[in-house]
């Protein structure tokens, strides 16, 4: 479906995408990466908005640059807003469908159907200026879906959604995948992608760091240093306990919070309740300080550079 | 492709029917009439026909056509980029080119309508003996000027969308208004030269010093059909160049795409 060979995109001296090689078969994929990681550049290359500085991009077997035939088979919902304020959502989607080459009659019905699909039928004749952010996101999604493309590309489509809207749109996208259509879904939030698909592409610093299922990504992380933060009434005593029990590679105490670096977090989670019961120490709060996606990417970047 | 251009043209016209844009349209149309009224009602004697011709030419084919197309055609691409709506249009089959040409047609028809209404009011106020002939000459000149200037500004706006308005104003002031008045071969490259030559021919204006004088370099001695053909080819060539530039350009920048 998508093939990138040694693709590099430079913006002057800034690297957007760096030596990216990737082959994707038809299906649904989550493109996961922190802000500024190169996701949007990659999507712009795939949708033909950008020309690679080096390498080649093929989408559905064709070069995407200025390719009218390919654009008929592709739907794109970019991350930026870019809607006209003084027209209604219906007029805008219908206009884009007309621009897509649909007849006036077909564009009229397809625009209505797409807006209904994303839950915008009640407000589709209102001016876009009056829409909430979530409504604008729904309208953006409608224009990408309306011409029934084979491949749907979404860049941060859940931005601005409330939990209900997020759930509704998740169902729409799951149904979409269920019809055998292909999807590429870019986000910087793991749970957003996990709710849609289990196939991940992890991108950071313009590089493809890892790909596979969520389990495969977690397996890759086994054995890498993890940080656990514990809040206690006696942080120094807790720190001493963890060092004595060899549960930590290093310990840092700041403002009553003990941050523990360990390569074996599971062992720590297992044994900590027993140690606390024996010593009478209290832990009021515990979380993995390293759970953020950025930490995962930092570790993957270090692996990529051979530093780990 | 034609259907796509028509879709953009109609959409742009619908979007243009807002109060601020209509106010601009009315202001631009009223300006020639206002200036002609000032001349007519403050002059001690009835101005000669050549003065009306020169003034109407300066007001309609020059000012209204230039200013109107500069305002509407130049930002064809930059307005979409600033609004970040370009990408929605560019991922449609032939979307970019359809938007460019649809907006161009929208701008030209918008300005031609302004020019013709303004011209009609101005000629009525001038109340010249030769009013009908003046109207017909200026109307033809406006119908040639608007597409030509529109194509010039469209190309400028496509080549450098981020600085389009500044460059379009600079082009107008330096090239059309200064270089166009230099009695040398270089002025033949301007739209002004062609329009001026047609004005002299169609209005039978007298050339100061006669045809043997240096003033001939400002109007040339080519027949009108040649000027018309050159203007039409120039317009088509500029539009073609704008579409080529558009197809080559990358408008999704790093700033716009969050890298």
Brief write-up:
The complex is a heterodimer of chains A (308) and B (259). With 308 residues, chain A is α/β, with parallel strands linked by helices.
How would you describe this structure to a colleague?
The complex is a heterodimer of chains A (308) and B (259). Chain A is an alpha/beta fold. Chain A has eleven helices and 13 strands. Chain A has two domains: 2-220, Rossmann fold; 223-302, Alpha-Beta Plaits. In chain A, the strands form three sheets. In chain A, strands 5-6-7-3-8-9 form a six-stranded mixed beta sheet, with helices on both faces. A four-stranded antiparallel beta sheet of chain A has the order 11-12-10-13, with helices on one face. In chain A, strands 2-1-4 form a three-stranded antiparallel beta sheet, covered by helices on one side. Chain A is elongated, with a radius of gyration of 24 Å. By secondary structure, chain B is mainly alpha-helical. Chain B has one domain (2-249). Chain B has twelve helices and no strands. Residues 253-259 of chain B have low confidence and may be disordered. Chain A binds chain B through residues 11, 14, 16, 35-41, 43-44, 47-51, 66, 68-69, 71-72, 74, 76, 78-84, 86-87, 91, 95-96, 98-101, 143, 206, and chain B through 3-4, 7-8, 11, 14-15, 18, 83-96, 98-99, 247, 250-254, 256-259.
